[in-house]
């Protein structure tokens, strides 16, 4: 189990949040409901979805590296 209050826990949470929001952007009903606002608190979801869709290779490699770290090194 990773601890959310440690640095690697925060990285795991951030990567999962970005991946989830990028997935929500591909689902039309969730895209209209969750990602319609571009400012404010709800804008965080939109910005995470944009990061996940534009930097999908870097995010995927980061997820693989973090999974390797958690499974084998920690």
TrEMBL record:
<keyword id="KW-1133">Transmembrane helix</keyword>
<feature type="transmembrane region" description="Helical">
    <location>
        <begin position="6"/>
        <end position="24"/>
    </location>
</feature>
<protein>
    <recommendedName>
        <fullName>Protein kish</fullName>
    </recommendedName>
</protein>
<keyword id="KW-0732">Signal</keyword>
<dbReference type="GO" id="GO:0000139">
    <property type="term" value="C:Golgi membrane"/>
</dbReference>
<dbReference type="InterPro" id="IPR042863">
    <property type="entry name" value="Kish-B"/>
</dbReference>
<keyword id="KW-0472">Membrane</keyword>
<keyword id="KW-0333">Golgi apparatus</keyword>
<dbReference type="InterPro" id="IPR009653">
    <property type="entry name" value="Ksh1"/>
</dbReference>
<keyword id="KW-0812">Transmembrane</keyword>
<comment type="function">
    <text>Involved in the early part of the secretory pathway.</text>
</comment>
<comment type="similarity">
    <text>Belongs to the KISH family.</text>
</comment>
<feature type="transmembrane region" description="Helical">
    <location>
        <begin position="44"/>
        <end position="72"/>
    </location>
</feature>
<dbReference type="Pfam" id="PF06842">
    <property type="entry name" value="DUF1242"/>
</dbReference>
